[in-house]
Specification:
The protein is an alpha/beta fold. It has one domain (2-143): DNA polymerase III subunit chi (Rossmann fold, 3-Layer(aba) Sandwich). The protein has three helices and eight strands; from the N terminus they run βαβαββββαββ. The chain has an eight-stranded mixed beta sheet with strand order 3-4-2-5-6-1-7-8, sandwiched between helices. A hairpin with a 2-residue loop joins β7 (130-137) and β8 (140-143).
Amino acid sequence: MRVDFYQLSRDPAEKVVPLLARATFKAGERLLVVSGDAAQLQGISDALWDQGGGSFLANGLAGAGQEERQPALLSRTMEARNGARYCALADGQWREGADDFARVFLLFGDAHLKEARACWRMLDGRDGLERNFWKQEGGKWTRAA
């Protein structure tokens, strides 16, 4: 299992999730995007659909039907009805069930920094777990740990 911590300092989750989704799809994987904030999920969905230049990243909201067909499923729960092995926790909250995914992206801003650090410590020393900490510097993502 791999957990990537993304500290959002410049761009909100609505801008970062499409980048992660594109990389996930290139890897041949599906993505579950989880947030307890319905407005945030809608914003992420809008951003995925509108990639500019006629490009889009197909996605759907859990509960809207045909979840199993969605390359990116946006949900308030950890249930990956689309068979996703990758999960983006867009609201900065670690959830029970995250351990069931091959890769987890934990996106958090300054308001959730304390919780992210606690999560980093909680995951320390787990067998077979790789952790990475990413932050934005000058418009680029750099690995900080």
